[in-house]
Amino acid sequence: MPDLSSRHALLSERIRTACIAAQRDPNAVELLAVSKTKPPGLITEAVALGMTQFGENYLQEAVEKIQHLEQLSLEWHFIGRIQSNKCKTIANAFSWVQTLDRSKVAQRLNQFRTLTEPLNVLIQVNLDDDPNKGGVDKKNAEHLLEQVLTLPNLAPRGLMTILAKSTDSRVGYQSVAQLHHDLYEKYASDLPQWDTLSMGMSADIEAAINAGATMIRVGTDLFGARTI
Ligand SMILES: *Cc1c(COP(=O)(O)O)cnc(C)c1O
């Protein structure tokens, strides 16, 4: 079985190649290492390889790892479905929340964030109306963004989307990805901190980079398959 170091080398090469093919700067695409279900020891190995940003979906598991690895001062991103009764914990345990898709959650995260730095948020959009995924449609994304802009403890940084499983023949990956990129670009000139389009996972890294992703979220191709 390949180890983390060789998987990471392979992944870095894939990112670089995809950027060159898309005529983009390889430094313009950030890697979020998705460490859900993986033990703290593996995260420590990833840190030794230079990774600093980690994504987690399950709150209880995440909080344990965050406490365990506190000394390393890593940047933790929450990328799971958000239950509103968990907002209090999420608001201060993470530096980023990528799955913001409703007003009530925005309000609660703002209310409970007590750290000096605002919580970075991405609005999760679901432009192909896939009922199996979270996320708001285009109109509601705009409403939600307007609301977030009034909340002092939240910093809107961009959009997040999950595309891989919805690559259906109806619209096609590139056209859906393009819609996300267009919506993202719409705000880029007005909001100085708006710098992140989180799109693409192990299976669709190349397509996402081609469509303008600035952050890819990779679990399987970095840490290996998840057994749970
Ligand atoms: C698990 C997960 C990923 C990583 O997916 P892989 O296919 O394992 O790379 C990315 N984004 C979200 C939102 C996830 O839940």
Explained architecture:
By secondary structure, this protein is of the alpha/beta class. It has a single domain, classed as TIM Barrel (Alpha-Beta Barrel). The chain is 40% helix and 18% strand. The protein has nine helices and eight strands. It has an eight-stranded parallel beta sheet with strand order 7-6-5-4-3-2-1-8. Helix 4 crosses helix 5. It is globular and about 45 Å long. The protein starts with a helix and ends in a 5-residue tail after the last helix. The mean pLDDT is 93. Pyridoxal-5'-phosphate binds next to strand 8 and helix 9.
Radius of gyration: 17 Å
Bound molecules: pyridoxal-5'-phosphate
Structural class: alpha/beta
CATH architecture: Alpha-Beta Barrel
> Helical region count?
9
Report the sheet with the most strands, covering strand number, pairing sense and barrel closure: 8 strands, parallel
Strand order of the largest sheet: 7-6-5-4-3-2-1-8
User: Looking at this structure, what is the CATH superfamily?
Assistant: Alanine racemase
Segments where pLDDT lies below 50 for 5+ residues? none
How far is the N terminus from the C terminus? 19 Å
Q: Quickly name the level 1 CATH class.
A: Alpha Beta
Helical content stands at: 25-40%
The tally of strands reads 8
Q: Tell me the count of domains.
A: 1
CATH fold-level name: TIM Barrel
Shape: globular
Strand and helix map with partners:
Layout: H1 4-21, E1 30-34, H2 40-48, E2 53-56, H3 59-68, E3 75-78, H4 87-93, E4 96-100, H5 103-112, E5 119-124, H6 138-148, E6 154-161, H7 173-188, E7 196-199, H8 205-210, E8 215-218, H9 220-223
Parallel strand pairs: 1-2, 1-8, 2-3, 3-4, 4-5, 5-6, 6-7
Helix pairs in contact: 4-5
This protein binds pyridoxal-5'-phosphate (PLP).
Pyridoxal-5'-phosphate is lined by residues 34, 36, 57, 79, 162, 201-203, 217-221.
